[in-house]
Design goal:
Keywords: Amino-acid transport, Cell inner membrane, Cell membrane, Membrane, Symport, Transmembrane, Transmembrane helix, Transport. The chain has 404 residues and is mostly helical. It is 80% helix and 0% strand.
Protein backbone atom coordinates (compact mmCIF):
# COMPACT_ATOMS: atom_id res chain seq x y z
CA UNK A 1 0.00 0.00 0.00
CA UNK A 2 2.79 2.42 0.94
CA UNK A 3 4.75 1.40 -2.16
CA UNK A 4 1.83 2.31 -4.43
CA UNK A 5 1.27 5.54 -2.52
CA UNK A 6 4.94 6.51 -2.67
CA UNK A 7 5.16 5.84 -6.41
CA UNK A 8 2.13 7.99 -7.22
CA UNK A 9 2.86 11.01 -5.03
CA UNK A 10 5.64 13.03 -6.60
CA UNK A 11 6.33 16.28 -8.37
CA UNK A 12 3.15 15.94 -10.48
CA UNK A 13 1.21 16.80 -7.30
CA UNK A 14 2.86 20.25 -7.32
CA UNK A 15 1.10 21.23 -10.58
CA UNK A 16 -2.36 19.80 -9.86
CA UNK A 17 -3.59 22.73 -7.67
CA UNK A 18 -2.96 25.17 -10.53
CA UNK A 19 -5.05 23.36 -13.13
CA UNK A 20 -7.63 22.04 -10.65
CA UNK A 21 -8.31 25.43 -9.07
CA UNK A 22 -7.93 27.75 -12.05
CA UNK A 23 -11.61 27.44 -13.03
CA UNK A 24 -12.97 28.14 -9.55
CA UNK A 25 -14.50 26.12 -6.73
CA UNK A 26 -17.16 24.04 -8.54
CA UNK A 27 -14.84 22.28 -11.00
CA UNK A 28 -12.48 21.62 -8.05
CA UNK A 29 -15.29 19.98 -6.02
CA UNK A 30 -16.31 17.92 -9.04
CA UNK A 31 -12.69 16.76 -9.49
CA UNK A 32 -12.45 15.82 -5.81
CA UNK A 33 -15.52 13.57 -6.28
CA UNK A 34 -14.02 12.05 -9.44
CA UNK A 35 -10.54 11.48 -8.00
CA UNK A 36 -11.07 8.18 -6.15
CA UNK A 37 -13.10 6.29 -8.81
CA UNK A 38 -10.85 7.68 -11.58
CA UNK A 39 -7.70 6.40 -9.84
CA UNK A 40 -9.04 3.15 -8.38
CA UNK A 41 -11.00 1.69 -11.32
CA UNK A 42 -8.21 2.41 -13.82
CA UNK A 43 -5.41 0.85 -11.75
CA UNK A 44 -7.64 -2.08 -10.79
CA UNK A 45 -8.25 -2.72 -14.50
CA UNK A 46 -4.52 -2.71 -15.27
CA UNK A 47 -3.84 -5.03 -12.29
CA UNK A 48 -6.50 -7.45 -13.52
CA UNK A 49 -4.97 -7.33 -16.99
CA UNK A 50 -1.52 -8.33 -15.67
CA UNK A 51 -3.13 -11.10 -13.58
CA UNK A 52 -5.01 -12.48 -16.62
CA UNK A 53 -1.87 -14.18 -18.00
CA UNK A 54 -1.76 -17.98 -18.11
CA UNK A 55 1.88 -17.74 -16.95
CA UNK A 56 2.22 -16.76 -13.26
CA UNK A 57 4.79 -14.01 -12.79
CA UNK A 58 4.49 -12.59 -16.35
CA UNK A 59 5.14 -8.83 -16.58
CA UNK A 60 2.94 -6.45 -18.56
CA UNK A 61 4.89 -6.70 -21.86
CA UNK A 62 4.68 -10.51 -21.76
CA UNK A 63 0.93 -10.34 -21.01
CA UNK A 64 0.36 -8.01 -23.98
CA UNK A 65 2.32 -10.35 -26.28
CA UNK A 66 0.36 -13.36 -24.97
CA UNK A 67 -3.04 -11.75 -25.58
CA UNK A 68 -2.42 -9.53 -28.60
CA UNK A 69 0.77 -10.79 -30.30
CA UNK A 70 4.39 -9.67 -30.70
CA UNK A 71 3.49 -6.58 -32.75
CA UNK A 72 1.27 -5.28 -29.95
CA UNK A 73 4.09 -5.99 -27.48
CA UNK A 74 6.35 -3.66 -29.47
CA UNK A 75 3.61 -1.01 -29.58
CA UNK A 76 3.18 -1.18 -25.79
CA UNK A 77 6.96 -0.86 -25.30
CA UNK A 78 6.85 2.23 -27.53
CA UNK A 79 3.85 3.66 -25.65
CA UNK A 80 5.53 3.02 -22.30
CA UNK A 81 8.52 5.00 -23.49
CA UNK A 82 6.30 7.87 -24.68
CA UNK A 83 4.35 7.74 -21.41
CA UNK A 84 7.55 8.30 -19.39
CA UNK A 85 9.89 10.29 -21.66
CA UNK A 86 7.70 13.45 -21.97
CA UNK A 87 7.48 13.51 -18.16
CA UNK A 88 11.28 13.64 -18.04
CA UNK A 89 11.10 16.67 -20.35
CA UNK A 90 8.46 18.24 -18.07
CA UNK A 91 10.72 17.87 -15.04
CA UNK A 92 13.75 19.29 -16.86
CA UNK A 93 11.73 22.48 -17.44
CA UNK A 94 10.32 22.40 -13.89
CA UNK A 95 13.70 22.06 -12.14
CA UNK A 96 15.15 24.92 -14.21
CA UNK A 97 12.22 27.24 -13.46
CA UNK A 98 12.16 26.32 -9.76
CA UNK A 99 15.87 26.96 -9.23
CA UNK A 100 15.74 30.15 -11.33
CA UNK A 101 12.78 31.45 -9.27
CA UNK A 102 14.56 30.51 -6.01
CA UNK A 103 17.75 32.33 -7.02
CA UNK A 104 15.92 35.50 -8.08
CA UNK A 105 13.19 35.70 -5.42
CA UNK A 106 14.69 34.07 -2.32
CA UNK A 107 18.47 34.38 -2.72
CA UNK A 108 18.24 37.79 -4.44
CA UNK A 109 20.89 36.96 -7.04
CA UNK A 110 20.70 37.09 -10.80
CA UNK A 111 20.24 33.69 -12.41
CA UNK A 112 22.71 32.74 -15.18
CA UNK A 113 21.43 32.53 -18.77
CA UNK A 114 18.74 29.87 -19.05
CA UNK A 115 20.74 27.62 -21.39
CA UNK A 116 23.67 27.53 -18.95
CA UNK A 117 21.51 27.04 -15.83
CA UNK A 118 19.49 24.20 -17.37
CA UNK A 119 22.68 22.46 -18.59
CA UNK A 120 24.30 22.69 -15.12
CA UNK A 121 21.18 21.28 -13.43
CA UNK A 122 20.70 18.43 -15.91
CA UNK A 123 24.39 17.47 -15.78
CA UNK A 124 24.14 17.55 -11.97
CA UNK A 125 21.17 15.17 -12.01
CA UNK A 126 22.92 12.94 -14.55
CA UNK A 127 25.96 12.82 -12.25
CA UNK A 128 23.64 11.31 -9.61
CA UNK A 129 22.47 8.80 -12.23
CA UNK A 130 26.10 7.72 -12.62
CA UNK A 131 26.07 6.58 -8.99
CA UNK A 132 23.92 3.68 -10.12
CA UNK A 133 20.29 2.58 -10.16
CA UNK A 134 20.40 1.01 -6.69
CA UNK A 135 21.54 4.30 -5.18
CA UNK A 136 18.75 6.21 -6.97
CA UNK A 137 16.03 3.77 -5.91
CA UNK A 138 17.30 3.86 -2.33
CA UNK A 139 17.39 7.68 -2.30
CA UNK A 140 13.88 7.89 -3.77
CA UNK A 141 12.45 5.48 -1.21
CA UNK A 142 14.05 7.53 1.59
CA UNK A 143 12.83 10.88 0.20
CA UNK A 144 9.21 10.07 -0.61
CA UNK A 145 7.81 10.00 2.91
CA UNK A 146 9.54 13.18 4.17
CA UNK A 147 8.24 14.82 0.96
CA UNK A 148 4.65 13.73 1.65
CA UNK A 149 4.97 14.78 5.32
CA UNK A 150 6.31 18.19 4.25
CA UNK A 151 3.38 18.68 1.83
CA UNK A 152 0.84 17.82 4.54
CA UNK A 153 2.53 20.12 7.08
CA UNK A 154 2.61 22.92 4.50
CA UNK A 155 -1.09 22.37 3.73
CA UNK A 156 -1.85 22.65 7.47
CA UNK A 157 0.44 25.68 7.78
CA UNK A 158 -1.51 27.44 5.01
CA UNK A 159 -4.87 27.15 6.84
CA UNK A 160 -4.53 30.60 8.53
CA UNK A 161 -3.98 32.04 5.03
CA UNK A 162 -7.30 30.69 3.71
CA UNK A 163 -9.56 33.38 2.27
CA UNK A 164 -12.93 33.53 0.60
CA UNK A 165 -11.68 34.42 -2.90
CA UNK A 166 -12.37 30.97 -4.38
CA UNK A 167 -15.88 30.89 -2.84
CA UNK A 168 -16.68 34.48 -3.88
CA UNK A 169 -15.74 33.72 -7.49
CA UNK A 170 -17.67 30.44 -7.50
CA UNK A 171 -21.23 31.72 -7.94
CA UNK A 172 -24.10 29.21 -7.99
CA UNK A 173 -23.75 25.64 -9.23
CA UNK A 174 -26.29 26.44 -11.96
CA UNK A 175 -24.28 29.35 -13.33
CA UNK A 176 -21.11 27.25 -13.16
CA UNK A 177 -22.69 24.39 -15.14
CA UNK A 178 -23.83 26.81 -17.82
CA UNK A 179 -20.33 28.27 -18.09
CA UNK A 180 -17.88 27.14 -20.73
CA UNK A 181 -15.04 27.68 -18.23
CA UNK A 182 -16.39 24.84 -16.03
CA UNK A 183 -16.13 22.28 -18.85
CA UNK A 184 -12.85 23.67 -20.17
CA UNK A 185 -11.31 23.39 -16.67
CA UNK A 186 -12.50 19.79 -16.31
CA UNK A 187 -11.33 18.88 -19.81
CA UNK A 188 -7.78 20.08 -19.14
CA UNK A 189 -7.65 19.02 -15.48
CA UNK A 190 -8.51 15.36 -16.12
CA UNK A 191 -5.20 14.55 -17.92
CA UNK A 192 -3.34 16.38 -15.13
CA UNK A 193 -5.22 14.26 -12.55
CA UNK A 194 -4.37 11.11 -14.54
CA UNK A 195 -0.73 12.23 -14.49
CA UNK A 196 -0.71 13.22 -10.79
CA UNK A 197 -2.27 10.00 -9.47
CA UNK A 198 -0.54 7.66 -11.91
CA UNK A 199 1.46 4.74 -10.54
CA UNK A 200 1.05 2.39 -13.52
CA UNK A 201 4.83 1.69 -13.80
CA UNK A 202 4.71 -0.25 -10.51
CA UNK A 203 1.42 -2.10 -11.20
CA UNK A 204 3.09 -4.96 -13.08
CA UNK A 205 5.47 -5.81 -10.22
CA UNK A 206 2.66 -5.18 -7.66
CA UNK A 207 0.38 -7.70 -9.42
CA UNK A 208 3.15 -10.32 -9.63
CA UNK A 209 3.97 -9.86 -5.93
CA UNK A 210 0.29 -10.11 -4.92
CA UNK A 211 -0.04 -13.28 -7.00
CA UNK A 212 2.90 -14.82 -5.15
CA UNK A 213 1.39 -13.88 -1.79
CA UNK A 214 -2.30 -14.73 -2.35
CA UNK A 215 -2.47 -17.34 -5.12
CA UNK A 216 -6.05 -17.92 -6.33
CA UNK A 217 -7.52 -15.17 -4.13
CA UNK A 218 -5.18 -12.55 -5.65
CA UNK A 219 -7.87 -10.42 -7.34
CA UNK A 220 -9.90 -9.46 -4.22
CA UNK A 221 -6.68 -9.14 -2.16
CA UNK A 222 -5.02 -6.78 -4.66
CA UNK A 223 -8.25 -4.75 -4.98
CA UNK A 224 -8.30 -4.24 -1.20
CA UNK A 225 -4.71 -2.95 -1.24
CA UNK A 226 -5.51 -0.65 -4.18
CA UNK A 227 -8.61 0.93 -2.60
CA UNK A 228 -6.73 1.66 0.64
CA UNK A 229 -3.73 3.14 -1.19
CA UNK A 230 -5.97 5.25 -3.41
CA UNK A 231 -8.02 6.45 -0.43
CA UNK A 232 -4.79 7.69 1.17
CA UNK A 233 -3.67 9.32 -2.08
CA UNK A 234 -6.92 11.15 -2.74
CA UNK A 235 -7.38 12.41 0.83
CA UNK A 236 -3.82 13.71 1.18
CA UNK A 237 -3.43 15.16 -2.33
CA UNK A 238 -6.87 16.79 -2.45
CA UNK A 239 -6.32 18.29 1.03
CA UNK A 240 -3.10 19.82 -0.28
CA UNK A 241 -4.89 21.04 -3.44
CA UNK A 242 -7.80 22.62 -1.50
CA UNK A 243 -5.41 24.25 0.99
CA UNK A 244 -3.41 25.84 -1.85
CA UNK A 245 -6.53 26.98 -3.72
CA UNK A 246 -8.17 28.46 -0.59
CA UNK A 247 -4.93 30.36 0.18
CA UNK A 248 -4.90 32.03 -3.24
CA UNK A 249 -7.35 33.53 -5.69
CA UNK A 250 -8.23 32.25 -9.20
CA UNK A 251 -6.17 35.17 -10.58
CA UNK A 252 -3.14 33.95 -8.60
CA UNK A 253 -3.51 30.47 -10.12
CA UNK A 254 -3.69 31.98 -13.61
CA UNK A 255 -0.48 33.88 -12.82
CA UNK A 256 1.21 30.68 -11.57
CA UNK A 257 0.34 28.92 -14.84
CA UNK A 258 1.63 31.87 -16.87
CA UNK A 259 4.91 31.92 -14.89
CA UNK A 260 5.32 28.18 -15.66
CA UNK A 261 6.29 27.31 -12.06
CA UNK A 262 5.01 24.82 -9.50
CA UNK A 263 2.47 25.85 -6.86
CA UNK A 264 5.21 25.73 -4.18
CA UNK A 265 7.38 28.26 -6.02
CA UNK A 266 4.36 30.53 -6.48
CA UNK A 267 3.43 30.27 -2.78
CA UNK A 268 7.03 31.11 -1.82
CA UNK A 269 6.95 34.28 -3.94
CA UNK A 270 3.37 35.23 -2.97
CA UNK A 271 3.52 35.06 0.83
CA UNK A 272 6.09 37.14 2.69
CA UNK A 273 6.43 34.45 5.32
CA UNK A 274 9.94 33.10 6.05
CA UNK A 275 8.78 29.49 6.49
CA UNK A 276 6.80 29.32 3.23
CA UNK A 277 9.31 31.51 1.41
CA UNK A 278 12.27 29.19 2.08
CA UNK A 279 10.79 25.76 2.77
CA UNK A 280 8.36 25.57 -0.18
CA UNK A 281 10.93 25.97 -3.01
CA UNK A 282 13.34 23.57 -1.30
CA UNK A 283 10.57 20.93 -1.09
CA UNK A 284 9.84 21.56 -4.79
CA UNK A 285 13.52 21.16 -5.78
CA UNK A 286 13.82 17.86 -3.88
CA UNK A 287 10.51 16.55 -5.25
CA UNK A 288 11.26 17.44 -8.88
CA UNK A 289 14.80 16.03 -8.64
CA UNK A 290 13.42 12.79 -7.16
CA UNK A 291 10.83 12.50 -9.92
CA UNK A 292 13.38 13.34 -12.65
CA UNK A 293 15.70 10.55 -11.46
CA UNK A 294 12.89 8.01 -11.18
CA UNK A 295 11.53 8.81 -14.63
CA UNK A 296 15.04 8.78 -16.10
CA UNK A 297 15.35 5.12 -15.08
CA UNK A 298 12.02 4.31 -16.75
CA UNK A 299 12.79 6.34 -19.89
CA UNK A 300 16.24 4.76 -20.17
CA UNK A 301 14.76 1.26 -19.84
CA UNK A 302 12.15 2.02 -22.51
CA UNK A 303 14.64 3.65 -24.90
CA UNK A 304 17.14 0.79 -24.48
CA UNK A 305 14.36 -1.73 -25.04
CA UNK A 306 13.31 -0.07 -28.30
CA UNK A 307 16.89 -0.02 -29.64
CA UNK A 308 17.64 -3.62 -28.57
CA UNK A 309 14.44 -4.92 -30.21
CA UNK A 310 15.20 -3.00 -33.41
CA UNK A 311 18.78 -4.31 -33.55
CA UNK A 312 17.65 -7.87 -32.76
CA UNK A 313 15.33 -7.81 -35.79
CA UNK A 314 18.37 -6.89 -37.92
CA UNK A 315 20.45 -9.69 -36.32
CA UNK A 316 22.68 -7.20 -34.48
CA UNK A 317 23.64 -6.67 -30.83
CA UNK A 318 25.12 -3.80 -28.82
CA UNK A 319 27.15 -3.68 -25.61
CA UNK A 320 25.06 -2.54 -22.62
CA UNK A 321 27.67 0.03 -21.52
CA UNK A 322 27.82 1.53 -25.03
CA UNK A 323 24.01 1.66 -25.25
CA UNK A 324 23.77 3.33 -21.81
CA UNK A 325 26.26 6.02 -22.90
CA UNK A 326 24.31 6.67 -26.11
CA UNK A 327 21.04 6.87 -24.15
CA UNK A 328 22.57 9.27 -21.60
CA UNK A 329 23.80 11.62 -24.37
CA UNK A 330 20.37 11.52 -26.06
CA UNK A 331 18.59 12.29 -22.77
CA UNK A 332 20.98 15.12 -21.84
CA UNK A 333 20.68 16.84 -25.23
CA UNK A 334 16.90 16.57 -25.51
CA UNK A 335 16.11 17.55 -21.90
CA UNK A 336 18.56 20.48 -22.15
CA UNK A 337 16.98 21.73 -25.39
CA UNK A 338 13.44 21.54 -23.98
CA UNK A 339 14.46 23.14 -20.65
CA UNK A 340 16.12 25.99 -22.56
CA UNK A 341 13.06 26.64 -24.76
CA UNK A 342 10.78 26.61 -21.64
CA UNK A 343 7.47 25.29 -23.07
CA UNK A 344 4.39 25.31 -20.81
CA UNK A 345 4.74 22.55 -18.19
CA UNK A 346 0.98 22.12 -17.79
CA UNK A 347 0.58 22.23 -21.57
CA UNK A 348 3.03 19.31 -21.91
CA UNK A 349 1.18 17.33 -19.22
CA UNK A 350 -2.22 18.06 -20.83
CA UNK A 351 -1.20 17.16 -24.37
CA UNK A 352 1.60 14.57 -23.90
CA UNK A 353 1.92 12.98 -20.46
CA UNK A 354 -1.72 12.54 -19.42
CA UNK A 355 -3.10 11.33 -22.79
CA UNK A 356 -0.41 8.66 -23.39
CA UNK A 357 -0.77 7.36 -19.82
CA UNK A 358 -4.55 7.22 -20.39
CA UNK A 359 -4.09 4.97 -23.47
CA UNK A 360 -2.18 2.42 -21.40
CA UNK A 361 -3.91 2.76 -18.05
CA UNK A 362 -7.53 3.41 -19.03
CA UNK A 363 -8.19 2.08 -22.53
CA UNK A 364 -5.93 -0.97 -22.96
CA UNK A 365 -7.38 -2.96 -19.98
CA UNK A 366 -10.94 -2.11 -21.08
CA UNK A 367 -10.16 -3.28 -24.62
CA UNK A 368 -8.78 -6.51 -23.10
CA UNK A 369 -12.05 -7.04 -21.17
CA UNK A 370 -13.89 -6.95 -24.51
CA UNK A 371 -11.42 -9.14 -26.43
CA UNK A 372 -9.56 -11.50 -24.04
CA UNK A 373 -11.47 -14.62 -22.86
CA UNK A 374 -9.67 -14.62 -19.48
CA UNK A 375 -11.06 -11.11 -18.79
CA UNK A 376 -14.65 -11.61 -20.02
CA UNK A 377 -15.80 -12.14 -16.42
CA UNK A 378 -15.20 -8.42 -15.76
CA UNK A 379 -17.45 -7.24 -18.62
CA UNK A 380 -20.77 -5.48 -18.10
CA UNK A 381 -19.72 -3.35 -15.10
CA UNK A 382 -20.73 0.33 -15.08
CA UNK A 383 -17.20 1.18 -13.90
CA UNK A 384 -15.86 0.00 -17.29
CA UNK A 385 -17.89 2.69 -19.09
CA UNK A 386 -16.65 5.29 -16.61
CA UNK A 387 -13.00 4.29 -17.19
CA UNK A 388 -13.38 4.42 -20.98
CA UNK A 389 -15.04 7.87 -20.82
CA UNK A 390 -12.30 9.30 -18.58
CA UNK A 391 -9.63 7.77 -20.84
CA UNK A 392 -11.18 9.30 -23.96
CA UNK A 393 -11.50 12.72 -22.29
CA UNK A 394 -7.84 12.60 -21.21
CA UNK A 395 -6.72 11.63 -24.74
CA UNK A 396 -8.94 14.27 -26.37
CA UNK A 397 -6.97 17.00 -24.53
CA UNK A 398 -4.32 16.45 -27.25
CA UNK A 399 -6.72 18.21 -29.64
CA UNK A 400 -7.67 21.05 -27.26
CA UNK A 401 -5.64 23.73 -29.07
CA UNK A 402 -7.17 22.71 -32.41
CA UNK A 403 -10.76 23.31 -31.27
CA UNK A 404 -10.54 26.04 -28.62
Amino acid sequence: MLGLYGTAIGAGTLFLPINAGIGGLWPLIFMAILALPLTYFAHRGLTRFVLSSSKPGADITEVVEEHFGVGAGKLITLLYFFAIYPILLVYSVAITNTVQSFMVNQLGVGAPPRAILSLILILGLMAIVRLGEKMIVKAMSVLVYPFVAALMLLALYLIPQWNGAAIEHAGSIGSALSSGLFYKTLWLAIPVMVFSFNHSPIISSFAVDQQRLHGDSVEPASSRVLIRAHGMMVLSVMFFVFSCVFSLSPADLVAAKAQNISILSYLANHFHNPVIEWVAPLIAIVAISKSFLGHYLGAKEGFNGLIIKQLREQGKTIEVAKLDRFTAVFMILTTWMVATFNPSILGMIETLGGPVIAMLLFLMPMYAIAKVPAMKKYSGAASNIFVVLIGLIAISAIFFDLFV
